[in-house]
Amino acid sequence: MLLDEILALLQTEAGAVWIYQPSSGKLRFAAARGWFSLLDEASIKPDGGIIGTVFSSKQHISREFASDPLLKLPEGIQIPEGWGGICVPIRAADETVGVFTVSVPLPREVTPEESKLLASLGDMAGIAVHRISLHEETTRQLQKLQALHAVDSAINASLDLRFTLNVLLEHVTVQLGVDAAGVLLLHPGLKMLEYAAVRGFRTNAIEQTRLRLGESCAGKAALERRTVQVRNPAEAPDEKCASLLKAEGFTACVSVPLIAKGEVKGVLEVFQQKPFSPDAEWLNFLETMAGQAAIAVDNARLFEGMQHANLELVPAYDATIEGWAHALGMRDEETAGHSRRVTEITLDISRKMGMNEEKLVHVRRGALLHDIGKMGIPDAILLKPGKLTEEEWEIMRRHTIYAYQMLSCIEYLRPALEIPYCHHEKWTVLVTPAASRAKRSHWKHASSPWWMFSMP
User: Fold this and answer.
1) Are 273 and 134 within 8 A, CB to CB?
2) Orientation angle between helical segments 161-176 and 112-157, nearest 10 degrees
3) N or C, which end of the chain has less CB nearby within 10 Å?
4) Are 17 and 125 in contact (CB under 8 A)?
5) Following DSSP, what letter does each residue of 378-405 receive, concatenated?
6) How many other CB atoms sit within 10 Å of the CB of residue 126?
7) Distance between CA 276 and CA 239 in Å, rounded?
8) Helix and strand tally (H, E) in the chain?
9) Local structure of residue 207 (DSSP, 8 states)
C-alpha cells in the first residue's frame, strides 16, 4: 500500500521494497511494481550492489540503474535501460531493516524535495516494518509455547509413545516449516537406530531404515551427541544419507540427538526440499522439541520397564506363597496336600458365587496360606500322635494369630489376610419366635471362644 501511494505521488510506475531476512542473511522483495517485478525471485547480499550499499550506508541516487557501476545482479537477470531513480534505507531506530527503491524514466530525475520526502517515508516504513516484525515475533513465540504445551500435555496424558511422537512431529513440521520429520529410537542392545514415527515422507521405505551409530546424519548425531546439519546433498556424511535425501527429493536435513538423563535415546530429524540456513532461534526450538521427545521416550521406557518388572514379580510372589505352603506340608504330614485341596475347593465355590478374577487372586493366596500360622506351633503339639490336651488346644488355636503376625507386614498379602486370620470363625443363626413367625432370621455371634463359631 505504501509503495503504491508513493508511486502515485511521484507519478511513476516502477518501484520496490526490499526487506532484510536474518534467517537467510539476504535482502528479498517484499513488494515490486513495474520493471522491478522482473526481479521478483532475486535476492541480494547486504554487502554489495546498489541495494546492498544503501542498506549498509545511506541513500543513493542513480542517473541510470542499468549503467550504474555499483549495480550487481545475479547472473541471468537484467534491468531495462533508460531508468534512473533513488534508493533510500528503511530504518527502525538505529537498525536498517530494508531498502526503498523508486525509479523514474529518463530524462526525468529525482528532485531534492522528492529525495527528502522518500527519506521521511523510509523512516515511516521502518517503524511500520519494525512494529509488524515485533507482532509477528510475538505471535511465533506464542505459537511455539502452545506447541510445547501441547506436546507436554500429550506426554503427561498418554504413555502411548507413538501417539506422543506423532503429536510432536505435527508441531515440529508446522512451527519450523519443514517438509518432513521423523524420530528414530536407539535399540540399547543392538546399538541400532530405527524409525518410530515419521511425517511428510513420500514413500514408506523410510520406516524400514535401520542405522548403526555413526551411520548417516542420524547415526552421526547419536554417536557424537550433537546436532548435525546437511545444507545440501554434497555435505552428506556418507552415501546412505545422500541416497535418502535423493530418494525423497530433499536437499537439506538437520539431526538432533534425543538425550535424557545423560543417555542417548534416539534422534529427531527434519528435512527440507529447498536449501536453507537455519538461524539460532530455529535451531533452539528444534533442540527444545528434541528434549521433549527424549522425555517422552524415557517416560515410556520407564513405564514399560515397570510393567515387565510387575509381570515378573507376580509369578515370583505366587511361587513364594506356594513354597511356604509346601514347606508347611513337609513339616506336617496331615497338612500335606491339604492347602492345595482347600485352595481348589475355595476357588471353585468363589467362581460359582460370581466373584471376579481380581478378587480371586487374593482368595487363592489366602487359601494357600490359611494354615501358615502352624509354622509357629511347636513340633510337640503339631506332630503329637494322640489327642491334644485343653492347654495344647489353646496353643494350637493361636495359629491364626501367628498367621496374622507373619503376614500383616507384607503389603501385597493384606487383601488375602482375612482368610488365614479368620478361617476358624463359625456363625450360628438364632431363630426367635417373632423371627420365625415373620420368617426372618438374623446372624449373631455364638458364645463360643472368639476363634470358634458353629455353622447353622
Assistant:
1) no
2) 180
3) N
4) yes
5) -HHHHT-SSPPPHHHHHHHTTHHHHHHH
6) 20
7) 21
8) 14, 14
9) G
Structural contact between residues 211 and 192, judged by C-beta atoms closer than 8 angstroms: yes
State the angle between helix axes of 357-368 and 280-331 in degrees (0 to 180), rounded to the nearest 10.
40
Q: Residue 255 class from Cβ within 10 Å (0-12 exposed, 13-18 middle, 19+ buried)?
A: buried
Half-sphere exposure of 163 (CA within 13 A, CB side): 11
Q: How many CB atoms lie within 10 A of CB 305?
A: 10
Three-state secondary structure readout of 96-158: EEEEEEEEEECCCCCCHHHHHHHHHHHHHHHHHHHHHHHHHHHHHHHHHHHHHHHHHHHHHHC
**pLDDT, tens digit only, all 456 positions of the chain:** 888 988 998 899 999 888 888 767 788 888 889 988 877 656 777 777 788 888 887 778 888 888 888 877 666 677 788 988 888 888 887 788 888 889 999 898 888 888 888 888 888 888 888 788 777 777 777 777 777 777 777 767 677 888 888 888 898 888 888 999 999 999 877 788 998 889 988 877 777 788 889 888 889 999 999 999 888 888 888 888 888 888 888 988 999 999 988 889 999 999 998 877 788 888 888 998 888 888 888 887 777 667 666 666 777 777 777 777 777 777 766 665 788 888 889 999 999 999 998 899 899 888 888 888 888 888 888 888 888 888 989 998 899 898 898 888 888 788 888 998 998 887 655 555 554 444 433 333 333 333 333 333
Range 99-102, long-range pairs (CB < 8 A, 24+ positions): 99/17, 99/18, 99/27, 99/51, 99/54, 99/55, 100/6, 100/15, 100/16, 100/17, 100/18, 100/125, 101/15, 101/16, 101/17, 101/18, 101/36, 101/51, 102/6, 102/7, 102/10, 102/12, 102/14, 102/15
Q: Which residues in 177-232 belong to E strands, given as ranges?
A: 180-187, 192-199, 210-212, 228-230
CB proximity list for 417: less than 8 A, separation 6 or greater: 366, 404, 407, 408
Q: How far apart are CA 85 and CA 12, in angstroms?
A: 10
- The answer to whether 165 and 197 are in contact (CB under 8 A) is yes
Cα–Cα separations (whole angstroms), residue 371 to 375, 412, 454 = 8, 18, 20
Cell of 325: 505352603
pTM: 0.53
CA-nearest of 426, 456, 431, 427 to 444 is 427
Task: Give the integer Cα–Cα distance in Å for 192 and 114.
Answer: 67
What grid cell was written down for 123? Answer: 523512516
- Read off the amino acid at residue 236: A
